[in-house]
User: What shape does this take?
Amino acid sequence: MQYETMHIGFDDTDSPRRGCTTYIAALLVEKLSKMGVQFLDYPNLVRLNPNVPWKTRGNGALCLRITCPMEMDVEVKEAVVSEVEQNSDLEWEGTDPGIVFLTRKKVPKEIREFASKAITGIVTKKKALSLIKRFEAEAVGFKKGRGIIGGLSAIGETLENDHTYELIAYRTPENRGTPRKIDAESVKKMDKETFPETFNNVDAETGRILITPRGPDPILYGVRGETPRAVKKAFKIIKPLEPIERWVIFRTNHGTDAHLKPVNSIKDVKPFHPVIVRGTVASNPKTIPGSHVIFTITDRTATIDCAAYEPTGKLRKIAKKLIRGDHVEVCGGVREPADHPLTINLEKLHIIRLAPRFSYQNPRCPKCGRRMESMGRNKGFRCRKCDFKDPNAKKVAVEEKRELKPGWYVTEPRSQRHLTKPLIRYGKEKKGRVKVELIDCWHSP
Ligand SMILES: [Zn+2]
Assistant: This one.
C-alpha cells in the first residue's frame, strides 16, 4: 500500500456568537483517527498577527499533519470539508472559512516564509492562492474564503523552533453559553504543582483564574505548558464541575513572542506590524484619562508614542516612572494607521539603561554645615545660623535614587496576548529542530 503525507490547514470558522476553530480540529482528530488516519504531530494551533484589523477572535489557525493510504485521499478531504462546513458560523457576516490541503512530505520554504509573514505582518489572499497553485495544494473557501490565508499559514508554521502546548477541554453542547463551572481551588493546586512547566494559570496580581475563557465558545478551559506531559498532569489535577465532552493537546506558538519582529530604527515601525524597537525616552510620561500612560521615544530616525493601557497593570506603573533620557526597548503593535503620531501599544518594556535623575538643593554653609537659604533669584545664599553669606553660591545637583531597575517588564498575564512570551519562559525557548514526542493527546466521548 502506498502512503501519502497531508497537511490540512483551516481557519476563520468562528464568530463572536459561537464556534471555535480548535473545536473543529478536535472533532476531526476523532473522525480521522477512526478512519485509520495516522497523525504525525499534535494538531498545530498557530496564532497569527494579533494586530491585523480584520482578525477573527484570537486569530488562531489550525493544521493537522497526517499520513494515510493514497486511496483514502478523497475520503479524508471530504471528511474535513464537511466537518468545517457543519461547524462554521456561516450565517455570520465576516466569518469566511477556508481549508488548504497540501499533499507532500516537506512544507516548502516559500510556504514557511508566507506563514512567518502572516504571524509578524500582513499577507494577501492573492499571494496565498499563487503559492497554492505553485505547490499543487488544494483550497476550499466558503463565502469570501479568507480563511484560506490562515489555513496556508498554519501549514507553513511548522513550529520547528520555540513552541508550547495547550490542552483544551471542551464543554458539552447543553452547557455552552452558560457560566463555566470549575473548582477554582483545584486550579490553584494545579498551578502550585505544575508551575513553571505550565504557565498563565492564575493572575498573580488579582488571583483570577485565567484558564477559562469568557464567551459562548465550546471551550471549558485551556492549560498552557512546556511539554505535553505537563499539560496532561495539570488536566488530572483540575476538577471540572461540569462534564467534559472531549479534550485535545495542541502544539502551538503561544507564549513565544513569534509575532514580534525587531526593527532597526523607529522610522521602520509600520501600522499592523508588531515590533521590538529601541529608543530614548524623549519626554516624561503622562497619564491620560482612563489611567493610560503615554511616553515618547526617539532615535536618530524618528519619534514614536508608546502607550501602556490601563489593563497592562504593573507595566503601566513601571512606564510611569520612566524619565527623559532612559534608554529602552519596547515591544508591541501599532493598530491604527490613522494615529498621528503612530502609537505602539506596549506589551513589553525592556529598560536597558536608566538616565540619572537630579534634584536641586540649597548649598550647605561651609562654616557650620547647615543648609543655607536663598537671598533671592541669582543673589546667592546665606546661613541663618551663623549669618555666613555667599552671593555666588548656587543650588547643588543631588543624584536621586531611581525607583526602577533595568530589565524586562511584561503586561500582567490577564492582559497578555496568546503570543506574548511570559517572563517565566525566558531562557526556556526550544531551539532548533526539537523532536516531538507523541503521547496520548486526545479523548472523545
Ligand atoms: Zn552657617
